[in-house]
Design brief:
This protein has about 150 residues and is an alpha+beta fold. Helices cover about 45% and strands about 20% of the residues. Helix 5 packs across helix 7. It is globular and about 40 Å long. It comes from Marinomonas maritima.
């Protein structure tokens, strides 16, 4: 009986800690809460996508404002997808852990999109983005492969 309990505890805990490659929230399949990831690069601000222009990538649904943005994403998804699967970049760096992100708290650094949890966390991240990117790049592979 004890072995079954230990096995079930281990099995359930591994499920509880497994994270999706793309952050979508608990009750959604939308990457970036439905914001168009290409718009950050072309319009320089977050724009909500349209249900007419959707694709699936890494088990998440990605919404776009136009067919042009959808086509741009399909051509180079890694170019437009947020770093660290859209999880909070500061949490990946400073906490070595996952946290949700707010699509309105964003930055593009060296052509890559980073999202943060909220305005306060974004201010922490903005104090030294280069350091946080370096730390997060180090932490991310082990975190996502847990």
């Amino acid at each position: 009986m004890t072995r079954i309990f230990v096995f079930m505890t281990f099995f359930l805990s591994s499920i509880a800690y497994a994270q999706d490659a793309i952050y979508t929230g608990f009750f959604s399949s939308k990457a970036l809460n439905g914001y168009d990831t290409v718009a950050y690069f072309t319009d320089n601000h977050p724009v909500e996508g349209n249900a007419k222009f959707v694709t699936e990538y890494k088990n998440a649904d990605w919404y776009f404002v136009s067919q042009q943005h959808l086509d741009m994403f399909l051509t180079e998804p890694e170019k437009y997808a947020p770093q660290y699967g859209g999880y909070c970049a500061w949490a990946i760096s400073a906490q070595n852990d996952f946290a949700s992100s707010d699509p309105t708290q964003w930055a593009i650094v060296d052509g890559k999109l980073y999202l943060n949890y909220d305005r306060d966390v974004k201010e922490k991240w903005d104090r030294d983005p280069a350091l946080h990117i370096k730390q997060a790049d180090t932490n991310w592979p082990a975190l996502i492969n847990k």
